[in-house]
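Action item from last week, closing it out:
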Amino acid sequence: MSDNQKKKLSPVQQEYQQLQSEREVKRPILANCIKAFFIGGFICLIGQCIQTFFIYNFNFTEQTAGNPTVAVMIFITMLLTGFGVYDRIAQFAGAGSAVPVTGFGNAVISAAIEHRTEGFILGVGGNMFKLAGSVIMSGVFAAFVVALIKTILIQWGGL
């Protein structure tokens, strides 16, 4: 708060501001960053293990193993969210659980669970993609633009 704004406050408001700043809980920013780093890294390690499993057991290549790996990770996240386990992980890890693809799965299923009392069509179906819909739309649009550019370059003999 700037000095100009503090001057406009009444003495009672200034006293309250001082009391609030004294009692405000200090957040452990460094500890939160470390937890997010390690939990997010662990989630990515699990994803890498799943991808390696697909490569060695189902003869996928590194390029083709990506899609089933993402699908399995999202499925696992949705199961853990449905059982209430992923919420506890997210509470502990913070952004570390939201950044990988598992955060997407959690966002979709959480909205579906929250609105299930409104019915399957209007509740689950209508609200499931409110948060994640923009991510899906951005991905589809970006893929379209890249495919269009690639097609034009192939037609002109650039690729």
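Closing note: Residues 13 and 75 are 51 Å apart (CA to CA).
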